[in-house]
Amino acid sequence: MGTLYQVPPPKSVQDLKVTILDSCLIFSPKENDVQKKPMFLSNIDQVLNFDVQTIHFFTPNPEFPPKIAFKMLKNALQKLLVPYNFLAGRVKVNQESGRIEVDCENFGVGFVVASSEYKLDELGDLVYPNPSFEQLITKKMDDILEVDGHPLCIVQMTAFKCGGFAMGLQTNHAIFDGTSIKYLLQNLAALAGDKPLAVVPCHDRELLAARSPPRVTFSHPELLKLKIPIGQEGEIEQNCNVYDTTTQDLDFKIFSLSGNDIATLKAKAKEGPTNGNGKITGFNVVSALVWRSKALSNYYCDNNNNNNNQEKKSSTMLFAVDIRPKLNPPLPPSFTGNAVLTAYANTDCEILEKAPLSELVDLVTEGVTRMNDEYARSSIDWGELYKGFPHGEFLMSSWWRLGFNQVEYPWGKPKYCCPLVYHRKDIILLFPDIEESNSGVNVLVTLPHKEMAKFESLFYNFLSS
C-alpha cells in the first residue's frame, strides 16, 4: 500500500550531456495585426509574475524523427502567435499605476534546439524529478542570444539518441494558469498537424477586473496584506511563508498512491460521520491525508523542541480552485488568464489527529464550495485594495488532472509530462503516475529531516489504519 521514492533512483542520469545546436526568436507572422495596446492583467495575474517550467517527453516515432518534429513545432509556434498575439510581448511595470501589464509589441518567443548524448530510456525513472532535467529547459535567452527583454515563452526541443525527444516549455505564470496552458498545448499540437485550433482562446482579462468601487465582503484569512509594490515577486517570496525558499537541509521524497490506495481512502471517508456536504473525490481524500500528515509532523516536532509544552495550534492548508465555472455568469472555459483562486481549509491540530477522515474531507469540501461568485469577486477586490497574497501553513499544488499527457501531437501523446521541481518546504505537489492506465497519484514532499521522518510515519499509519 503506497510506495516511496527516498533517493534518486540509482539509474538516473545526473548529467544529460545536452548541447545547444541552435536558438532563435520567433515572431508573429502578422506584424501589422499585433495588438499594440498593453494587455491588462488581473489582480490574480499580478502576484504570479514568475516563470513556470514543464517538460514533455516523447518516445521515438519513425515517421517523425526529431529533425522533422522540431521543424513542425517551430512552424506551429509561429502560427500560434496569431491567435495568441500577446505571447510575443513582454511583462512590464506601468509606472503610473504600479501594476504589471503586457507590452504587446512583437518582441518574439524563444525557440531552442538541443541534443543529448543519451537515449530516453537511459534517463531512468521519469517520475522522479531529476535535477538534471533542468538541462532540458532554457530559462534565459540572453545567455545564448541577444534579445529584447525576457520572453513570455521559451521552448527547448532536445533530441535523444534513440529518436525520442523532450519539449521543455517555460511560460510566465502571470499569462497562463494550468488550464489555459493545456489549451495552448492542444492548439500547438493541432497547428503542428495543419489542423484548425482545438480551442478558440478567450483573452478578455477584463472579465476578472476588480469591481468599482472594490467591495471586500469576506475576511479572507487565506490572504496576507502586503506592504510592497505589486509585481515585485522576489520580495513577495521573501515575505510569504507559503513560498519559503530558505536554505536548509531538506529531505525530498515522493509518496506514490495507487488507484487502489485512493479507492480505499474514499471507502474510509464514506464510512465515517459527515455533515452531508463532503464530496468524496480523489483530490479531497488525498488532500485530507496529506494535510493531516503535514500538519501533525510540524506540530509534534515544534512541541518536542519546546519541552513538550503542547499549545493548541491550528493548521491552514491552501489549494487552488478553478473559478471559471464558479462565477455568475461563468467564464468561458477557454479563458486564457489566471482563473484560479486560493481556497483554504482550517482546523485545530487536535481535530486533525483524532477526527475521522470523513470530517477532514468535509473541511476540504467547504473550502471548495466557499469559492462562489461573491467570494471570488471579494478576493479579487481584496487584491485591488491590499495586494493580497496567499497565506497559510502550506500550499497543495495539483498537476494531477491537468491532462498535459493527453494532448495528441502528430507524433503521438507524451510518454510523461512533469513540472520542473524546486525544493520548497511549504509547497506539496500532486502529479500523475507515468502509466496512463493507472489512476494513482504521486505526492512530492520536501521537509526538514525530522519532520520528514514524522510525516512518513504518520502518512503510512493513517493510510493503513
UniProtKB/TrEMBL annotation:
InterPro entries: CAT-like_dom_sf (IPR023213), Plant_Fungal_Acyltransferase (IPR050317). Keywords: Acyltransferase, Transferase. The gene is LOC110783404. This is Acyltransferase GLAUCE. The keyword Magnesium does not apply. Coiled coil: none annotated. One of its GO terms (molecular function) is acyltransferase activity, transferring groups other than amino-acyl groups. Belongs to the plant acyltransferase family. The keyword Transferase applies.
